[in-house]
Please model this.
Amino acid sequence: MSRPVNLAVLGAGLIGKRHIEHVLSQPDANLMAIVDPSPTARALAEEKAVAWYPDFAGMLEIQRPEGVIIATPNQLHVENGLACIAAGVPTLVEKPIADDVAGATTLVEAAEHACVPLMVGHHRRHNPLIQEAKRAIDDGRLGQIVSVHGTCWFFKPDEYFEVPWRREKGAGPVFLNLIHDVDLLRYLCGDIVSVQALESNALRGNAVEETAVILLRFASGAMGTMNVSDTIAAPWSWEFTSGENPAYSHTQETCYWIGGTRGSLTVPYLDLWRHETESNWWKPIARERLPVISKDPLGLQVRNLCEVIRGTAAPVVSGREGLKTLKVIAAVKEAAASGRAIEIL
Model:
């Protein structure tokens, strides 16, 4: 095995702490430093026996990482990312890549111009069950994809909204939660070229949506629907169905359905339904559950970052891919506000 890659983590909040633990547990990686001005971050660095710096520039004056994971607040992603790119340091930035399309475009173009690897933390793509679903689709086992559906239903309690920014525009489930689901359906079924959407805040009355229903048109000609709400007590979401995050209970349910001319697939349980002889509703239909070995996608994401830095692999989620997903979310918000179908350029 090659020597571990020296990584720094910028931001030691909830998701930053998870990245720190995965870097520490990944044999390919070495946690060189934690960069965050807070006293709790400094204490965490002492606990983990790694260097601590209040800012990125201060770290560069003393030591240079081979790669950086940015887990700072969304509003700082572009500023922090541009600093890493200017220093020539390969970067993984947490999703969303930025809090608006203009900033994301600036960051992606800067990375591409400088030929510095830029990755985005849509970690679910790394999950082996998603890789297996992608393989089944690409191998033609479903035939031509015709339609897809995704459900993202859960109930956020009142105390969640005691934090003021969670009641304001930009903090609803479309931007914070559905962006993951949009990214997966894009990955599995191809680019999305137009959207229509309706939103509601009828129950809580906050300035942000709590429910949205979305129509999707894919470049392939396939169509799709997505339904997201944080006011529904239900088991049909990635969090509850995938078993990926132990913070959530694990249900034996489905959150995505992908339908094609030769078969249909449920995700995450990978039930492939096909007619035994030919696609014909008069013929018997049978289920095959595709086998998959469970692995932690956040750990696999760290490994991919190390491979990209070594030059032995391409990013699973590039900056350009993160930008495309953000454009879909921006189009959803515009479609809901305008009542029009929005083309995605």
